[in-house]
Design brief:
By secondary structure, this protein is an alpha/beta fold. The protein has 18 helices and 14 strands. The protein folds into three domains: 103 residues, Tetratricopeptide repeat domain (Serine Threonine Protein Phosphatase 5, Tetratricopeptide repeat, Alpha Horseshoe); 192 residues, 3-Layer(aba) Sandwich (Rossmann fold); 133 residues, Rossmann fold (3-Layer(aba) Sandwich), CATH 3.40.50.2300. A seven-stranded mixed sheet has the order 7-6-8-9-10-13-14. Strands 2-1-3-4-5 form a five-stranded parallel sheet, sandwiched between helices. α14 links the parallel β8 and β9.
Length: 464
Amino acid sequence: MPRSILLVCLLLVQTAGAQPDTAPRVPAAETSFDSGTRSYESGEYAEAFRLFTRAADDFGYNARTTAALLMAGKSAYADGDLAQALSTLTTFARLYPRSRYVGEAESIIRRAVQGKVGHGSDVLGLGVILPATGESGYLAQALFNGVRLAVDRHNARAPRRPVRLVFRDTEGSDVGASVAMNLVAREGVEAVIGPLFSEEATSAASVAERESIVLMAPLATEEGVSAGRRFVFQANPTFSMRGRAMARFAVRDLRLGRLGVVAETGSYGEVMANGFQEEALLLGASAPLSLRITAGDWERLPEAVGVTAMSQIDAIYFPVTGSDGAEHAAQALRGMEAMGLEGVVGTLGNTEWEALDASRGRASRFGTYFTLDFNIDEAAAIDFISQYRELSGIPADRLALIGYDTAQFILNQLTDGTEGTLADKLRDAPRYRGLAHKIGFAGGQVNDALFIMAYREGEVVLVE
């Protein structure tokens, strides 16, 4: 996904995980650490884990934080809880990469990965490659936190089939993404989530394909990221796929046979329009109206299209994009109304149609349907939202939910116990309804599952 679009569409989160240069001594933290040391030396590892975790987490960053996190991981490892040890130590290594204890932590991680849990089930590896710093670091932190919560949830429910997170920094560059992908591949991971943008994802994809490791790009929308590859998937539908999804709903569900499309030349809307038209024709519908206009033509739609052309169709698709997308959708509706087409020709749209304001009543009267890529199931997300705030200290945003849903979809297939490669399982998996996203590949590499919404009496309602 282009950076400018992402920065407009997503809420911002603060950068986390930087290690301060100085750390105060906190008496209560010192006491907890000393008590943990005594428990550890006495073989009371569960109690030691509790005390070290308290010293690290309950008093802000302090002189004992890094040592306490290391010792908490060592305590969990000594207690035989490899899942907790991996979670604690990989988090420590990610948050404090400059700590002198990182080498020891990585040594324990390697031993834990080679070890067995319970009845001998192997630990599974999930790689995450994202920028740790720079202009995109704050975006990546939210996505990583969502992934971590999905892994924590899995490990709590299936401790005998634990998953460890392996994080590597892409440094926000194409070269960095390739290097990061190579590094996690050496760790023996089964799948990787990341990087953020299409350019870095394309670079990492080459490595993933060579190493036969599943790479799930959570945000990339460029067609070339997964095209022609077997192990690379795009959780974010491409613009062409968004148009195709709308066409499938129009033909298969609404039973519409004559479809029109109007889009702005040179925009992502035109890419959606092309996908819509191709899919409609493939499904047996006709497309007697296909028009490309300039940005200024939206408010002059009657002159640009004409009533005669409109009389030949059942519904028309208006894929609008950009910061003025919602206003262009409203202008299109006003033009339809001016041509007297209410009750005659239906309107179809894309995500930007959700932002309609004054024209919601008009959209309802035209029986408008539109695709949406993000729709929170508030009841299902209550626990996640609470856990996310506890983890990060800030509200969960779209990126956090993208991270969670993407990771959960992968984990469902990674740990289902059936035969087959993970790549094949992901391709053929039933559509997954996450906390805020749908994911399904229908035998391909690009997610084609979108929410279908409609305007009814001025309100947006979920259709499917």
